[in-house]
Amino acid sequence: MLIGQYKHTIDVKKRLALPVRFRGELGSKIIITKGVENCLVVYTEKEWEVMSEKLGNLPISQGEARSFTRHLLASATEVELDKLGRVLLPDYLKEYAKLQKNVVVCGLSNRLEIWDQAMWENYTKSAEKGVEEIVSKLGPLGI
Question: Residue 35's domain spans which residues?
Fold first, then answer.
C-alpha cells in the first residue's frame, strides 16, 4: 500500500528519486500525469489500466468528461525507473506542477502525488482547516 509523505529533491538533470518504500510496489515502469490541484499523479501500470478504462467509459457527450479525460490522458507519460529508483520528469509536467528543487511525494493508497514542497505545505494548511466539514460530507459515502 502506498501511504505516507516523503521529502525529496529534483536533481540538476531533472530526475526525482522516488522513496525506497514505494519502489517495490511501483515496479520498473510507471505512468505520470497531471493531477487536479497542480500536482503530478503517479500510477503503476496496473492502476493506470484501471483509470484508463474508467476514463474511456465516461460519456463523450459531456464536456466535463471530455475535458477531464484530456487532462489526464493527453498529459500522461510512461517512465522507467533507473537502478536508483529515479525518474526523469518531463518539462511540461514540472511546469504544470510548478515543481522546484524540493518536492513532497505522497502515497495515496493506489497512487502517488508529487507536489512542490511549498505548494504542499500551503495546501495542507488550508485543507486541515476544513477537515471536519469534509468528513461530514463523506459520511454518506461510508467514511
Answer: 2-117
**Residue 137: exposure state from Cβ atoms within 10 A (0-12, 13-18, ≥19):** exposed
| pLDDT tens figures, 20-33 | 999 999 999 999 99
DSSP for 78-109, written as a single string: EEE--TTSEEEPPHHHHHHTT--SEEEEEEEE
Query: Does any domain span residue 39?
Result: yes
How many separate helices (H) and strands (E) can be counted in the chain?
A: 6, 8
Which has the closest alpha carbon to 106: 39, 47, 30?
A: 39
Question: What pairs with residue 116 in β-bridges?
Answer: 103
**Count of the separate structural domains present in the chain:** 1
Its pTM stands at: 0.91
CB crowding 43-56: b at 16 or more within 10 Å, else e: bbeebbeebbeeee
User: pLDDT tens, 37-89?
Assistant: 999 999 999 999 999 999 989 998 999 999 999 999 999 999 999 999 999 99
